[in-house]
Amino acid sequence: MRQHIQRKITDTSDFKEKLFHWVSQSSSFTILEGQQMGTIHHQYDCIIGIGELSSLIFQGQVDFNQLDHYHQKTNDWLLTYISYDVKNSIENLKSQNSDDLKFPLLKFIQPRKLLCLKNNLLSFHYLNDDIQDVEKDFNDINKTLVEESSLPKVDFINRMSKKEYFENASQLLNHIQRGDIYEVNFCQEFYANDISFDCLQAYKSLREISKAPFSVFSKLDSHYVISASPERYISKSGSTLISQPIKGTARRDLDPNTDHEIKIKLQNDPKERAENIMIVDLVRNDLSKIAKRKSVTVQELCEIYSFEQVHQMISTITCEVSDNLKLSDILKASFPMGSMTGAPKYKAMELAEKYETTKRGLYSGSVGYITPDFDFDFNVVIRSLLYNVDNQYLSYMVGGALTSKSVIEKEYEECELKGRAMRKIFGQSS
After folding, report:
1. Cβ contact 252:262 at 8 Å
2. Cα–Cα distance between 13 and 222 in angstroms, integer?
3. What would the pLDDT profile of 243-288 be if each residue is shown by its tens digit?
4. Of 87, 204, 247, 359, which residue is the catalytic one?
5. Is 247 annotated in the active site?
6. pTM of the shown model
7. Which residue among 29, 76, 186, 257 is least crowded, i.e. fewest CB within 10 A of its CB?
């Protein structure tokens, strides 16, 4: 059982810096942070899990019955890592591309210690055996020294040459023209070998540039996630499910008038709207498999949200579900998220796998949390650096939707735009 103790914070920004440094000294931790998104169904500003009281890991096929059993047995806070390739346990699909990161296929963690920050209140959700640590931990956090370090210059290598990207994208457009699919999310990897760096500093630099609502900084054994994701996969609050797919990206500009023009152009772009609406239809169809009758609703269609680096076109779809719905029911109906697959979903995933050169792994999968009341919030792992300490392999992937209206050169430029923040923190300007 956990006890719940709160402490008031006077300077939240300063305290967060100390908190993150304190947490990063642990051998296993997860930080889920939301920034600049007070209007988008956030329950917490920050959730932090430290240590592992228990965990469930799958490296091959996922046993969904075992997953449900673990979820129900723990009846506690869980931190969740769901790789894109869980799709192979839901559908008859395979992933045979290269994988130098080697993240777990799926991992759920029951944290030893859990902290939640909302506004200026820090809540300690500690086990009975650890409740005596609250005062010491709170004092230690406040006494933590915040140190800055420099990041090395990294020249990321494209796993797929620009020529290969154009050739493979052309093949996918041929499939679209033949009517095999309507839309596909086509992704590529950028990587660096033999890289050593301060992962916390990388996260701090990325969060400062991006200020993203679904950010993650975590360490799982030899794996780090450094994410500035702007996208929610799915959340649950009571009986309501909320999905917010992103399709449509445009750059920001320092000049307010130009920036506003770019935003309006994105809002009215027929190609971007068509991409977004196709995914909205896919998400509506996914949710209808588990929703109460006539409860699937599009609350926002093609709304523009502005982040530090980009404008994004986001739609919001909700539905109501029954109390006896299991976690596996939700995952089987909706995962992977439509914004990272395409439509029709199965064929788009099959073709993406054929023409991509890297196994996606955790990229375009999800990291999130589940509460004891079975509320949850799961992000989409995009705009993220993934790092394997053991082989010093650093990677990020980017992608975009191909439709019949796509111009490959512009799609490639969009990929470069999406990777700009990751390159920038390591001193690569283009």
Report:
1. yes
2. 29
3. 999 999 999 999 999 999 999 999 999 999 999 999 999 999 999 9
4. 247
5. yes
6. 0.95
7. 257
